[in-house]
Amino acid sequence: MKLKFSVVSLNSCNGCISTLVSLDVFLNLVKSAELVYFPFIEDSDPTTVKEDAELEYSDVTLVEGCVTQTSEEELLKKLRKSSKKIIALGACAMFGGIESLSQSDRKEPVSKYIAIDGAIPGCPPPENVLGTSIIALLEGRTLPSAKKNLCSVCELRPELEKFKTIKVDKLHPEKFPTTCFLDENVLCLGPVTREGCDAKCIKMGLPCEGCMGPPEGLDYTANVINFLSTLELSDRLKKYEGVIFRLYRPRT
Ligand code: SF4
Ligand code: SF4
């Protein structure tokens, strides 16, 4: 019997789901699973709360985006009742993500309202991480995770002991980096972020903003705060809320 899948968006840019439908593995999903609820491709309003009877049972429900309104909270609770596994898809669903920079008072991760059974990280999730995660879900295996941080695979990696004495006063580099961003006094969250994204931002000259979340088994909030406390942050960075905008606690 085919696995039943649902894919639902809360408040989001739809980037995670757009990435999903653009992958070859999406064809595997369509062929080997039954998509019972997927408003993004059904042309229906995802914020319309379905009645219990309308929500079919799902073996796996992927949820993209964060909660910004009551209808999304109610939808989540109904999905929890009708789904065997709920997986947070992307940084917004896991931590609040980019939405947390908005003026809205409410931008909460999925795990604030319901228990989740796992998460697929990234903003959007890297193709290899999303692809292997979908295959794992189709095969009933646990989601892949990473024990190492981004620095462990970063070409700019310095001696890590240096981090403790580094002064950080910038969010962006003045030139394309050839040494670790932290050496250039630019904040980079690589030390407390899991690897798996192929260091794409670093390779484009941008510091890591932590969208992949923590390495396996670590609490993101405590992890990032501990890391920031080892740096000498400038007053401007201490006040900049964006530095910690993803600091929600996932309940996985
Ligand atoms: S995690 Fe990134 S790509 Fe996914 S919905 Fe949020 S902002 Fe868009
Ligand atoms: S702090 Fe950033 S730039 Fe430095 S090694 Fe880690 S990921 Fe690379």
Describe the structure.
The protein has 252 residues and is an alpha/beta fold. It has two domains: 3-138, Rossmann fold (3-Layer(aba) Sandwich); 150-244. It has nine helices and seven strands. Helix 2 (24-32) runs parallel beside helix 6 (127-138). It is globular and about 55 Å long. The model is unreliable at 248-252 (pLDDT under 50). Bound molecules: iron/sulfur cluster (2 copies).
Descriptors for this entry?
alpha/beta; globular; disordered C terminus; two-stranded parallel ribbon; 252 residues; five-stranded parallel β-sheet; Rossmann fold; binds iron/sulfur cluster
Brief overview:
This protein is of the alpha/beta class and 252 residues long. Helices cover 28% and strands 13% of the residues. The longest helix is centred in the N-terminal third of the chain and has 13 residues, at 70-82.
The CATH class of the largest domain is Alpha Beta
- How much of the sequence is in beta strands? 5-15%
Helix fraction by DSSP (H/I, runs of at least 4): 25-40%
Count of all domains: 2
Task: Quickly give the CATH architecture of the largest domain.
Answer: 3-Layer(aba) Sandwich
CATH superfamily of the largest domain: NADH:ubiquinone oxidoreductase-like, 20kDa subunit
Which term fits the overall shape?
globular
Strand order of the largest sheet: 2-1-3-4-5
Secondary-structure-based class equals alpha/beta
Number of strands: 7
> DSSP helix count?
9
Uncertain runs are: 248-252
The chain-level mean pLDDT equals: 85
Q: Kindly, what is the distance between the CA atoms of the first and last residues, rounded to a whole number of angstroms?
A: 28 Å
Bound molecules: iron/sulfur cluster
Order of helices and strands: EHHEHEHEHEHEHHEH
Please describe the biggest sheet, giving its number of strands, its sense, and whether it closes into a barrel: 5 strands, parallel
Looking at CATH, which topology of the largest domain would you report?
Rossmann fold
